[in-house]
Amino acid sequence: MDVNQKFTPQSWPKHAETATMEGKNKFVGIWMFLASDTVLFASVFATYLALKDQGPAGMEFTAQGLFELPLAFMMTMLLLTSSLTSVYAMYHMKNHNAKGVITWMAITVLLGLGFLALEIYEFYHYVHIGFGYTQSAFSSAFFTLVGTHGLHVVIGLVWITGLLIRNAKRGLTLYNAPKFFAASIYWHFIDVVWVFIFTVVYLMGVLG
Amino acid sequence: MAHDTHFETRSQAQYEYDRAQNAKHMRKQVTQFAIMIMLTFVAFAAVVADFSPYFIKPLILLLAGVQVVQQLYSFMHMDEKDAPHMGVIQFFIWGGGFIAFTFFVAFLTIIWW
Amino acid sequence: MSSVAKKKGFGGHIWDYLTTVDHKKIAILYLAAGTLFFAIAGFEALLIRVQLMIPNNDFISAGLFNELLTMHGTTMLFLAATPLLFAFMNAIVPLQIGARDVAFPFLNALGFWLFFFGAVFLHLSFFLGGGPDAGWTSYASLSLYSPGHGIDFYVLGLQISGAGTLISGINFIVTIITMRAPGMTFMRMPLFTWTSLVSSTLILFAFPPLTVGLFLMLVDRMFGANFFDHTMGGNTIIWEHLFWIFGHPEVYILVLPAFGLFSEIIPVFARKRLFGYSSMVFATILIGFLGFMVWAHHMFTTGLGATANAIFAVATMAIAVPTGMKVFNWILTIWGGSVKVTVPMLYALGFIPSFVAGGVTGVMQAAAPLDYQLHDSYFIVAHFHYVIVGGIVTALFGSAHFYWPIMFNRALNEKLGVLTFWIFFIGFHLTFFVQHFLGLMGMPRRVFTYMADQGWDTFNFISSIGALMMGVGVILLVINVLISIKSAPLNRRDYWGDGRSLEWALETPLPFYNFKQTPLVRGYDPYWIEKEEGNKEGMVYAEPIGDIHMPNNSILPFVMSIGTFVAAFGALYSPWGDQAKAGTAESVSPGLSLALLIGGLGLTIVCMIIRSFKDDLGYHVHKEEVVQIEKELAEYRAKGGKR
Questions:
Q1: Residues 6+ apart with CB under 8 A from C144
Q2: d(CA A94, CA B22)
Q3: Per DSSP, what are the bridge partners of residue C137?
């Protein structure tokens, strides 16, 4: 059977993302990767917790004085909303609405870009006021944790943008449906990690 | 694998039923999203409102945990029992979560100086 | 596409292996690369033992000794044992579960090439200013201050090869979960497939902490971060934790497939069903789980406190229970069987007592108070060599004999194999048995020499003689392999006559698609069931002969790995590193460093984009071609392997 076969909404299988063997493999594979990524983030997170507010004697910056909640709140809202928009994209995939998938995924990318811009601004701001990567153990741990998450966002954006460009005109097939689905799952996972980051790093950081 | 996938075009009635189900499912997910937004508000508000840290910290961790479960089961479709190998996937994700938990405990208790 | 008739030049063969995504060929690549690094690390071990043969020896300098012992340990674990086990996993697991290939053939190739280039990168250190010299554990308090680029090579090389291992691990998990033939339920999977699954799961969860640890070390040394630098608020204990969170499961990552291999060998030659199959599965999973909960037993003397030490001591001792279950199951499989003592069986019989000895000393060290005495002594060296050589290397040698017929359609010489076994086995016990006593007498590990007349002279001499015997044994095995190339092809199924699982039902040489029809599995030990029922085909089929979908070859994995290899040089010669700033390590201009870094990673990313934008749908081997290939193979076998 040809994976590039054209479908109508009526002939489109109910679970298109796992309808083929390749799709099933991709589906299980992305989940296995995320299980592994959970442990990766746990390691960076645990390192951050161990090194929080640690630095050379007379260190200027601690979490309590550094973090600002309004920015973190805006970033959270952007990322949470982008999670919902990618759910919308998957909803349209179920109904074999290629245009809907492309549109909502594009909105997801825009929201992700907004998040990334705020994060870059935040990092720039910190470096500007003297809280650089090499300033203390705390700064190294902070930038590594949040930066690892930011890197995941960048990868996700490049991935989804690539999918959008490649599949802009050719409609939904059993070849690209699993790819969209995997990208969407990955994007949600980025949000899952962010939930912990805004809670543990920002909120609990401000609490001291 | 060449020939293990066969598709049958759904009947009109089945197709309409599935569409309605999808829409219903989507409405559920929007509700979940609304709850998540609300939980986020509560978490930020609790910190801004300046309650005792002994109250706020467990609360916002709990809220984070609820949000993560919502993401996993609603947005990431871990609630779909008919998805292939979902049991194995759940085992691996929660296994990873458990191992992550041991890291936190260890790094908060037996790293010192 | 015929697998038999096509004639290729030498260059064609090279290209074929560079681009292959066939699990059987990748297995051969893993086997060759693993053997190369096994030989290098073995040679390093010999140099170490020659240096320690007599007291006050000055055969090699102290600095070189440190580099040798570091590279011996690192290479043996990451670059020899892991790829050799991957070789057998690649070669056998898809056959055991009735699959035509792995779930992600492209990633399979990528995993190999990343591993290979990481390994090559690490070994280039010897030619570019000296190898790493802080031990395979590379504790941060030591390695942060090691001058030169040795540690940087270690960090970057392991980072690259670790990424490859992680990718392979995910690939195997997905393969075993989704690609099983109809009827191959979880509780019908052969033990080697089970242990491969659990071991891949451990890779999945254990390699990310290593990746993080290595990354922290990388930025600390090369880009001025402060994770482990206590003057800047850092903490070196973090490295120890991250390393052992990875390092302890790594031991099980290696030993579980070895258990699996013996669980395949023993029933075949005891000619009896594996005793206690479900308890073996249970024990495997339990070992995998407990393997994650015990890492701090490597850190008893770090000073974690009595509570933590007690928890980890008890958890460690608990591992002896599932391991003991396995040992008893193997013994009870042999018990009452009609045993054929072939070379693989000899290795299995040698394995059981050797491994038990290694396990028992492990339980001794699990007792935290005793560990304070044993820590960093030769007792530890004896213990883990008993586990690794007695457990893993015997499994690798035994399975090489066992699976050679399937992998190469040739058999290894039986007589030479027996001789090899005895020389290696006696050499192994000579080397490491006496080291227990050296440790108890107080000889610390990782010392480059020692004073005479402390009672250590004789035992060290014996130990070195044993090491030389092991070296002779390995050379004999290599000779055996070389002889086998010239031997007659087997062209048959079930070489040992008592094969039980699906891989033995296939006639060698295998077609590239493994199974012309997907088999239907009717129970545990499917081939045995079919033999009992007189089925000459060896299996029943789940589908009629039809088109077979196969993946396309690709050069991209190779190029992607070269990209990371180039980028690693950019990071290595970074001018922002502590050592570079202090002038104790060479560096290049910031521009060149960044150019290498961005250029290398850019090459990798471009390959990824090509991969995403060019649809790779694979190709179909049509029904007529399948019939034709099967006919040619049958003729080839009938003619005794002559074209």
A1: C151, C217, C220, C221, C228, C229, C236, C578
A2: 7
A3: none
- So what's the pLDDT on residue B5? 61
Q: Which chains touch B (3 or more CB pairs under 8 A)?
A: A, C
Q: Which of C205, B86, B18 is nearest to A24 (CA)?
A: B86
Residues of B (44-83) whose Cβ lies below 8 Å from A: 44, 47-48, 53, 56-57, 60-61, 63-64, 67-68, 71-72, 75-77, 82-83
Residue B108 near chain C (CB below 8 Å): no
Cβ of residue C537 closer than 8 Å to a chain B Cβ: no
- pLDDT for the residue C2: 43
Please compute the mean of the pLDDT values over residues B32-44 and round it to a whole number. 95
Q: Is the pLDDT of residue B8 over 80?
A: no
Q: Return the pLDDT at B2.
A: 42
| Alpha carbons within 13 A on the beta-carbon side of C472 | 17
Distance CA C436, CA C162 (A): 32
pLDDT grade for A14, boundaries at 50, 70 and 90: confident
Residue showing tokens 């979880």 = C186
Phi first, then psi, for residue C309 (nearest 5°) are: -60, -40
Share of chain A above pLDDT 70, in %: 99
E strand or H helix at C548: strand C548-550
Question: Would you list the DSSP string of C377-401?
Answer: BHHHHHHHHHHIIIIIIHHHHHHHH
Interface check for C543 against chain B (CB to CB < 8 A): the answer is yes
pLDDT given at position C3: 46
Question: Which CA distances in Å does C409 have to A84, C432, C630?
Answer: 55, 36, 16
pLDDT over threshold 80, residue A94: yes
Nearest partner of C159 among C151, C147, C148, judged by Cα: C151
Picking from A41, A87, A203, the nearest residue to B47 by CB comes out as A203
Instruction: Name the residue facing B111 among C178, C235, C543 (closest C-beta).
Output: C235
pLDDT at A208 over 90: no
C627: helix, coil or strand? Answer: helix
List CB contacts (< 8 A) between C245 and chain A. 43
**Alpha carbons C276 and C455: distance in angstroms, whole number:** 47
Ranges of chain C with pLDDT below 50: 1-5
3-class SS letters over C236-264: HHHHHHHHHHHHHHHHHHHHHHHHHHHHH
**pTM, rounded to two decimals:** 0.95
Tell me the residue type at C429.
H
Instruction: Decide if B3 and C547 are in contact by the 8 Å CB cutoff.
Output: yes
Residue-level pLDDT at C108? 96
